[in-house]
Design a protein that fits this description.
Blueprint (H helix, E strand, L loop, with lengths): L3 E2 L5 H10 L4 H12 L14 H10 E2 L3 E8 L6 E7 L4 E9 L2 E6 L2 E3 L14 E4 L2 H15 L5 E4 L9 H11 L12 E5 L3 H8 L6 E5 L5 H7 L8 H15 L3 E7 L7 H11 L4 E7 L13 H13 L4 E3 L13 H7 L1
Parallel strand pairs: 1-2, 6-9, 9-10, 10-11, 11-12, 12-13, 13-14
Antiparallel strand pairs: 3-4, 4-5, 5-6, 7-8
């Protein structure tokens, strides 16, 4: 018999389940706290729950649909890259990055990706499956337990396109920010998308204070179409209009991610076009030295050229930073380790 994932239930759903067993609703509150605050994945650790109820639950429900299969620790900066496996056998990656201000965790939303961005390793093998909300939660819980410290910031920027798994993403966000769970502040969470425009509008209407990051990577439609197939569906103007709606609706600034690719999008003309595109918007640009992928022909822009690009944007009064590379010695770029592991 296939067991249902108990971690999937939000608090109201768990109460309904426990009431159906003839138990009082406060038992559901206790179980919810064990799973989502104390991060227990074994019924035997729930010391204030009767053996009878635990036996009932264990027959039909599992806890934590993910396990750590392997991990690599960077000798340079302490970044930890995890290979995790779902109950169904799918392999995904998660990363824990330690900073002076706290620990940030980058999680995956899918096993594989179907967006086809031509500089990315995650999409090479296509989409295997979308992760459930509990499989996303499990990545956070397992890392927090393994690292022995609280997760302070979450980035949904690992393998997969989060908005291609929209319903599970929203459920995950509601539960990870629940005051009865880990209670991570919405302002400490970032969701990255390659710009599925219709979902940007939906996300704005969720009335969350989560940061929206747009994988833009080009200053115009022509260049974007050469590196991102999604650009054939949504234009830069449509993306801009959706982002302006998000900003107006939430009051939050948008982050534009821009992977610096040698000879493709790193000219000063590109910098000028990008500056014109974002002028007047409440936004921030994150310049990312692209990671070389063996199966791809793209190479990262030279450091001095990236700095020139940054300086031009700064002179035009645009908020911009260059992303600091983390875990370079453990292949912390999305999809690289998973691809090797599957090989």
């Amino acid at each position: 018999m296939n067991k249902t994932d108990l971690m999937h239930y939000n608090k109201d759903e768990l109460r309904e389940l426990i009431l159906s067993y003839g138990e009082k609703s406060f038992r559901a509150d206790q179980i919810y706290e064990w799973i989502h605050k104390k991060l227990v994945s074994d019924y035997s650790e729930m010391t204030n729950i009767s053996n009878k109820l635990k036996e009932k639950l264990e027959k039909s429900h599992t806890i934590c649909p993910m396990r750590i299969k392997d991990k690599l620790v960077s000798k340079k900066d302490g970044t930890v890259k995890y290979i995790m496996e779902t109950i169904s056998g799918s392999i995904i990656e998660s990363v824990a990055m330690q900073y002076s201000y706290g620990m940030s965790v980058c999680i995956s939303s899918q096993a594989g990706c179907r967006m086809g961005c031509r500089f990315c390793a995650s999409t090479i093998l296509g989409l295997e499956k979308s992760l459930s909300s509990s499989e996303m939660l499990s990545q956070i819980y397992l890392i927090q337990k393994d690292m022995g410290r609280r997760v302070d910031n979450i980035v949904v920027m690992g393998i997969g396109e989060p908005f291609d798994n929209y319903d599970a993403l929203i459920r995950f966000l509601r539960m990870i920010t629940d005051e009865y769970g880990l209670n991570i502040s919405q302002r400490n969470i970032t969701v990255s998308t390659c710009a599925l425009v219709d979902k940007i509008y939906d996300f704005a209407d969720e009335n969350m204070q989560v940061t929206l990051a747009i994988s833009l990577h080009a200053p115009n439609d022509d260049i974007r179409k050469t590196i991102m197939p999604i650009a054939n569906r949504y234009s830069m103007d449509e993306i801009k209009e959706a982002c302006q709606y998000f900003i107006k609706k939430t009051g939050r600034r948008v982050t534009f991610e821009y992977a610096m690719i040698d000879g493709v999008n790193d000219s000063m003309e590109c910098a000028k076009e990008l500056a014109l595109y974002v002028r007047g918007m409440l936004c921030h640009i994150n310049l990312i030295p692209v990671n070389a992928v063996k199966e791809r022909r793209y190479r990262r822009t030279r450091s001095n050229r990236i700095r020139d690009f940054e300086k031009y944007l700064e002179k035009n009064e645009i908020n911009v930073t260059i992303r600091k590379g983390m875990g370079k010695d453990i292949e912390a770029a999305c999809g690289q380790l998973r691809r090797q592991y599957l090989k």
